[in-house]
Amino acid sequence: MSRRRTPKLPSWLPVDPYILALLGTVGLAAVLPASGAAAPAASGASTGAVALLFFLYGARLSTREAMNGVRHWRLHITVLACTFVAFPLLGLAARGLVPFVLTPDLYNGLLFLCLVPSTIQSSIAFTSIARGNVPAAICAGSFSSIAGIVVTPLLAAGLLGNSGGGLSADSLLKIVLQLLVPFLAGQFLRRWVGGFLVRHKKVLGYVDRGSILLVVYSAFSEGMVRGIWHQVSVVRLGALLCVEAVLLAAMLALTWYGAKRIGFDRGDRIAIQFAGSKKSLAAGLPMASVLFGAQASLAVLPLMLFHQMQLMVCAVIAKRRARDPLPEPRSAEADPAPAGQGSGSGVRAGS
Q: Is-contact 191 201, C-beta < 8 A?
């Protein structure tokens, strides 16, 4: 008697279990939102979770590793330009879709998505699978995350106006206290806590993700209590998905062909494409909770949808790039290829 096989999803269709957890959290907030006396407790826990996240980001960042990548400054500037210039310009261009395609609230979320820094883990994973310049992807993602702590809130304050909290003293104080101060504290204490973080990396990964789930629950609970979700229809969500698909396609094309036009080799182009076309869910969710307050639930919806879309599309691209013939090795006089290139394909494609 033959053994029955468990059906499996196609290997080219990654379903991030964490996305399922996020959707489950949204469902929980819809059924059992934090209201009444529980609302302040949930809000306070969310604030603490955001501070903890950015403390851990600062404590984990190796200053030495980041400085080792500075020599490839042209690549890093290209990725930063894609993340904080090209993406925002496309987001501003989408303003013409309001109100015919997108509601003002969904557009604000789309524009916020365009201001969020790039990912680290998934950029590295896909660059590795495609046999690109992995060390460059590591540094590019790290630099983008560092810059995003300052650049994303400032861009949001300038471009989103009152929808993102404006440039008021109160909003700037929140940014400093909840994002920048914990990050700098983590950097300062890294020499004492760095070893502990390395030894307990797996457990702290659950702390990271659990903290983000708490932020999502708090934001969506507040949205449910205020009746924000009644403003979104299925048709509007479908339109949002179409707009995001066009946005992702435009950035994938720009990063690949633009990098070729300015003279980058294959390995660097792969790193630029995956680091320059992607957005970090882990960084964007806590930032949105600080910047948008009660409107955070709608603000993060475009980012959550875009995150899963980029994972699925980039997985297909990475596996196709892996089948490309590699170029001839560089001569001894040229800069040697980074030692980590093409290895570590098991890196988790997270946010």
A: no
